[in-house]
Amino acid sequence: MGINAEGHTIMDLDYKQFRIEASCLNEGGRYYARAKILRVASEEGTLEEVKWSGDIGEYRSEAEAVDAAQQWATRWCDEQAD
Q1: Half-sphere exposure in the Cβ direction for 66 (13 Å, CA)
Q2: What mean pLDDT is reported for the chain?
Q3: How far is CA 30 from CA 21, 47, 55, in A?
Q4: I need a surface site. Which of 38, 52, 63, 64 has the fewest CB within 10 A?
Q5: Res 3 pLDDT > 70
Q6: 13-49 in b/e burial notation, b at 16+ Cβ within 10 A?
Q7: Dihedral sign (CA 53, 17, 82, 78)
Q8: Which residues fall within 8 angstroms of residue 31, CB to CB, at 6 or more apart?
Q9: End-to-end C-alpha distance for the chain, whole angstroms
């Protein structure tokens, strides 16, 4: 896990043909799960956003929120493969 430019906890994961950016927004001790899903859009490897989750839910810790975001995103990716 790392911290993005906005100071949010984030975890990147390559999954199938997608890149998942699972993140957490900390608002006064409340942790909100979020996910951004990208895919390679060109031969140069440029990434393009294909799905944004918005706030998925509120969790007790950053780790729980990031895990929930990752689970949401992998389910979305799996549904696209069907």
Answers
A1: 18
A2: 88
A3: 20, 30, 12
A4: 52
A5: no
A6: eeeeebbbbbbbbeeeeebbbbbbbbeeeeeeeeeee
A7: negative
A8: 24, 25, 58, 59, 60, 61, 62, 64, 65
A9: 29
CB 39 within 8 A of CB 51: no
The encoded tokens of residue 43 equal 């031969």
Give the integer Cα–Cα distance in Å for 22 and 77: 13
DSSP H or E stretch at residue 58: strand 57-59
- Side-chain-side CA neighbours of residue 63 (13 Å): 0
pLDDT digits (tens, 9 = 90+) for 32-50: 999 999 998 878 888 999 9
Residue closest to 34 by CA, chosen among 15, 54, 4: 54
Evaluate if residue 6 carries a pLDDT over 70. Answer: no
